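Lab meeting, item 3. Inverse folding demo.
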């Protein structure tokens, strides 16, 4: 009897340990779900950063092309200016030659000066455009560097999340193995308890008339069998309560002789 109580206590302890293991498994699964959600957010952020980076790189390439075009146009303008300056020098010489005809030549000189001023204005405008393009290029380069840094940080967080998921999956696998072992141990203990009960029942001495307990005086209403011919078992069709998710069944009587069952 003491061994049976000890086994029952051990079974209760193992059941409690099983419940704790199930609770740990549930927590680990919830943590895994949370981590996967964070990973999905990181992946979305990485895709967004990649898109911004590609867009900035395209803008940078376009800006470089525009800068090269502006440089070519500026070179042409410088050539035109040099030609205009040469023409201006030539015209100055011509002015000296035709001072006698001041009226017509002064008008022609004013026209040449106007063209020279226009050429100078064109040169200034091109210089301003070049400076603006240089500023845009510097700004685009800085933005590309910032996006590359953000991408590296997001990739690092992605690697950390994958490592955390691996750890959680390993922990869940360990808990599942522990639960399987606990269930097997509980089954073994239940079998041992049943064997001991059967041995105790077989070793009971026969009771004298008048010494029978209320349980041993039960009589089969069908064949009239009593005593050891009556067995009390769980009625799996009637659940009376739950204890830590364990079902507690009502009891019923079974006649060993005729197999009749009654409450």
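The presenter then showed the designed sequence:
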């Amino acid at each position: 009897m003491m061994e049976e109580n000890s086994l029952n206590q051990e079974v209760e302890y193992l059941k409690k340990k099983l419940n704790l293991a199930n609770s740990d498994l549930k927590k680990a699964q919830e943590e895994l779900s949370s981590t996967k959600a964070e990973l999905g957010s990181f992946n979305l952020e990485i895709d967004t950063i990649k898109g911004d980076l590609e867009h900035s790189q395209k803008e940078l390439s376009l800006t470089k092309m525009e800068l090269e075009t502006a440089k070519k146009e500026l070179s042409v303008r410088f050539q035109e200016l040099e030609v205009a300056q040469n023409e201006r020098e030539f015209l100055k010489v011509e002015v000296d030659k035709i001072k006698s005809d001041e009226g017509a030549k002064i008008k022609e000189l004013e026209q040449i000066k106007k063209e020279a001023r226009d050429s100078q204005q064109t040169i200034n405008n091109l210089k301003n455009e070049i400076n603006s393009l240089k500023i845009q290029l510097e700004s685009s380069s800085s933005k590309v560097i910032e996006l590359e840094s953000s991408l590296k940080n997001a990739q690092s967080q992605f690697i950390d999340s994958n490592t955390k998921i691996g750890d959680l999956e390993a922990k869940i696998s360990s808990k599942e193995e522990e639960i399987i072992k606990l269930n097997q141990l509980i089954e073994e203990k239940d079998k041992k308890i049943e064997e001991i009960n059967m041995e105790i029942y077989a070793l009971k001495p026969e009771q004298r008339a008048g010494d029978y307990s209320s349980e041993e005086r039960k009589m089969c209403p069908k064949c009239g069998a009593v005593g050891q011919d009556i067995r009390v078992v769980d009625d799996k069709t009637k659940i009376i309560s739950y204890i830590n998710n364990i079902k507690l069944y009502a009891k019923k009587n079974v006649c060993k002789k005729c197999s009749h069952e009654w409450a």
